Amino acid sequence: MDELLHRDFINNGIATFPCRISSYHDIINPLSAKHYETPNPDFTDYLESGAAVLPPDCPIVLDIIEDCLTEEERKIIEATVHEYYAYKLGLVEKEEKRHKKRFLIMTVGLIIAGFLLWFSQGLDEVPRELFFVLFWFMGDTLCDYLLLTGHDLRRDRRAVLCRISSSACRWDLSMWRRRRS
After folding, report:
1. d(Cα 14, Cα 157) in Å, to the nearest integer?
2. How far apart are CA 78 and CA 165, in angstroms?
3. Can you give the pTM of this predicted structure?
4. Is the CB of residue 20 less than 8 Å from the CB of residue 14?
5. 60 sits in which H/E element
6. 19: closest CA among 70, 76, 81?
7. What is the per-residue pLDDT across 91-117, written as a single tens digit (0 to 9) for each?
8. Kind plus residue range of the DSSP H or E element containing 16
9. Residue-by-residue DSSP string for 128-147
């Protein structure tokens, strides 16, 4: 797989990601209003799935293969793609902050519940059970955050979105002609 990626997509340490389009609406959602353009969901799915398999150390260049766009449409496409992925990156970072707060609260809660459970050894069974349930809930939530919620997946998603939002666009047919011959 790595050999195919390097042969087909990586040249001089730069990952060129080909996007062959036949109209403006292959990239821009036809339902979006002028000056409020959004990317076409099919295009974003294609771009995100392709960028996820490219090596993380290679910058991405979107090689948009077309002969149907005006200069204004090209500028709109470039701005829309960059703004959309910068926005998605901001959402992922906001979600990561929320998860860090949750992690901190659960860690402090687990420590407090552990102390309450430790100091309640001489009490009746009913309050001790409450502290045990609290300790179990905090520990379970903390383990869920650490092991199951996909911290690595969020980190990888953030890296992919960052790479796409900082990608450059190339608007010529040279790569398409070279591949066909």
Report:
1. 20
2. 10
3. 0.74
4. no
5. strand 60-65
6. 81
7. 988 988 888 888 888 889 889 888 888
8. strand 14-20
9. HHHHHHHHHHHHHHHHIIII
